[in-house]
């Protein structure tokens, strides 16, 4: 398995897609029940293959990621060659940017001395999707990039 197995909830959401996946392998619903009962290791392999296919599809489309922690925000823009980062750090113990109140404070105090903005870029490895997946495993989520684009304009990076 290249990525991670989907959760039970994700499999439930993708129930029809999983049925279609099994159909492409000429596995009927009845055969799937038999496989699960008689050959659980084969069933596990099918779940893993399907999970990797779903992850590949999602990661291929990913262009922006965000990761919030109480005093930092990491905004990523994925290009063909690089992962660009805009990092916002709040050096005010009373502010937690993961809360509505803390985020509002950040919006109103962006130019405060206790707010630092950093930018960085690193080259993509040979496996783009694995690089993106590693960020997701660390807590990043895929976004449409609104926040990244806001800060990119604010920092005159474009």
From TrEMBL:
InterPro entries noted in UniProt: DUF6495
Family annotation (Pfam families): DUF6495
The protein's name: Histidyl-tRNA synthetase
Organism: Salinimicrobium tongyeongense
């Amino acid at each position: 398995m290249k990525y991670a197995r989907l959760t039970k909830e994700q499999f439930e959401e993708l129930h029809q897609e999983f049925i279609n996946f099994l159909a492409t392998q000429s596995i009927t619903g009845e055969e799937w029940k038999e496989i699960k009962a008689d050959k659980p290791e084969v069933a596990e392999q099918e779940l893993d293959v399907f999970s990797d296919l779903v992850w590949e599809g999602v990661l291929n489309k990913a262009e922006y990621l965000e990761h919030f922690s109480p005093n930092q925000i990491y905004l990523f823009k994925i290009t063909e060659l690089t992962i660009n980062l805009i990092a916002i750090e709040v050096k005010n113990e009373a502010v937690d940017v993961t809360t509505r109140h803390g985020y509002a404070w950040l919006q109103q105090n962006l130019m405060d001395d206790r707010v630092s903005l950093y930018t960085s870029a690193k080259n993509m490895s040979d496996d783009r999707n694995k690089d993106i997946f590693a960020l997701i495993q660390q807590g990043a989520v895929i976004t449409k990039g609104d926040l990244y684009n806001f800060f990119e304009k604010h920092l005159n990076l474009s």
